[in-house]
Structures are given as C-alpha cells and as structure tokens.
Write a structure and sequence with these properties.
The protein is of the alpha/beta class and 278 residues long. The protein has a single domain, classed as TIM Barrel. Helices cover 44% and strands 11% of the residues. The strands form two sheets. Strands 1, 2, 3, 6, 7 and 8 form a six-stranded parallel beta sheet that branches.
Length: 278
C-alpha cells in the first residue's frame, strides 16, 4: 500500500480519537466529580468559630411562649441585601438567607463577602442547593447528593453556619429528605401554614411565600393566625424591588410588612432559635 494512501486512511481515525478525547476532557471539567467530594465535616478549618455562631444564636433568644415570626429570604438576590437587610435593621430584626451557592457568580446575586457580613450582623445562613434545580426527574442519586452535600461544604468553607436546608421550589421526595437528615438539622419546604412550637417535624418546616399579589390584609391574617396558635410563622421572600415579577415585592410593601410584624407583638426569631425550642 502506498504511503500517501495509508496516510489518508489513518488521518480520519486519528482525528476522531483526538476530538473524542477533547470532548471527554471538556465534560470532565464542566461536571462535578460526584465520587471524589470531600466529607463535609472536613470542609472547614473554622469549626470552633461556626460552633460559636450556633451557640450565640441559641443563647440570644428566649421564647416567651407566644407566636414567632421568621423573615426567610430565598435565592440570595442582591435586593435582599440592599433593601431587605437595611429595612429589617431599622426595626432591630434579623433574617435568614437561603443560599444557592452556584448562582452567586452571576449578576444580581449577593456575594460571599456580603453573606459573611450578614452572619456577622446576626443573620442565619441556610443552604439552598448548588444549582437550584427544582425538577426531581432531572436529579440523579449522584447529582442530588452533590446538591445537598457540596452546598454545605461550600458554605462551611467560608466560615458560615449551614445547619438548615431549604428545598428549591419547595419540591421534596424521599431521597431528598433522607439526604437532608444526613447533612442538616432541618429542612424547609414551601408548604404554607403555621408550624407548631416546639416544631413537630424539623424536616417539614412550612413557609408562606409572599407574592407580588399578596396584600397587607393577607399578612395581618397570617400574623393573627400565628398569634392565636402560638405557632411559628415563616414569611418567605424573594426579590425586594420594583421588577414586577411574580415573587417580587416592592421595598415600600416590604416595609409595610415589617411594620405590621412590629405591631403584632410576635417575637422575631431565626430558624435555629425556633427549632431548638424544647
């Protein structure tokens, strides 16, 4: 066989091998190595400091045996820092921030230094997965493990408390609940309602989503219900801006809500403070 002909026969095969290897290498860089993740207990060198944050949260709250309200902010939108944090501070209140770690690199989301500042100011940080994937049919067993375990690893690695998990879109199943029980002390859903105190099931915490269509009378009704039941009301917020999105509330309406909470005489507390009530 002539050398030129042999070269023309071999060249396509070599090119196919190189392209295949390039694609495989590229995929390996994009996808997490589910089988080679560190154990979450080894994720931080600041374990003592994180333990101290937890103990200070618990010690700074004394339940007065009445209703309790929590301001819980999902997805770490920047407006929660620029508007929500400021407005709550005017009333001396703290909130809880649910962080989807993989989204923080995008514009419009709070950055790690701001999250650290919130914890320093007395807020509580919750894990909210990595990608915020809501479809359980998309999540394999490995990817679900990654979402719950690695989000905790990343939050802990920044010296932040991450005892509680918030299910993206409130979607749960048996596999997710089992993993939540492995890595977290509680899990919050998006199921509306008032939680009992002490909390009956810490892995099925109810939360009431606040929509653009929510009215101040709706808020008053929830506050009254929590007061009569001596229960735990979780108010769940997303954007606090004028975008007009389904889950967006204006800064003015958010301030109205905070003022109503102040007038209600209900205690304002963080998740760990309520969950640890016996």
């Amino acid at each position: 066989m002539k050398p030129k002909l042999l070269l023309w026969m071999i060249a396509p095969a070599v090119l196919l091998i190189l392209v295949t290897r390039y694609i495989a290498d590229s995929s390996a860089e994009e996808l997490p190595n589910f089988t080679d993740l560190p154990q979450y207990t080894l994720a931080t060198v600041a374990k003592n400091e994180i333990d101290q944050v937890r103990q200070e949260l618990i010690a700074s709250f004394e339940w007065k045996r009445g209703g309790v309200v929590t301001f819980w902010f999902d997805d770490a939108w920047m407006s929660q820092y620029t508007e929500g944090y400021k407005l709550l501070a005017d009333y001396g209140y703290k909130g809880s921030l649910a962080v989807p770690t993989g989204l923080l690199k995008y514009e419009g989301y709070i950055k790690w230094w701001q999250i650290k500042k919130l914890q320093f100011e007395g807020w509580e940080i919750s894990a909210h997965s990595v990608s915020h994937e809501c479809d359980p049919d998309v999540l394999t067993a490995d990817s679900l493990e990654y979402e719950l375990r690695y989000s905790k690893i990343e939050i802990l690695s920044h010296g932040l408390l991450a005892d509680n998990y918030v299910a993206p879109c409130g979607v749960t199943n048996e596999a997710l609940i089992a993993l939540a029980k492995t890595y977290y002390k509680s899990m919050r859903t998006s199921e509306p309602g008032i939680n009992s105190i002490p909390v009956g099931d810490p892995y099925f915490i109810k939360a009431n989503a606040i929509f653009a269509t929510t009215t101040i009378d709706d808020i008053r009704g929830l506050l009254t219900e929590a007061k009569l039941a001596r229960g735990w009301l979780v108010l769940m917020f997303h954007q606090i801006d004028d975008s007009g999105g389904e889950y967006a509330v204006t800064p003015e309406f958010f301030q109205e809500i905070v003022a109503e909470v102040s007038k209600s005489d209900l205690q304002v507390a963080l998740p760990t403070q309520v969950i640890t009530i016996k």
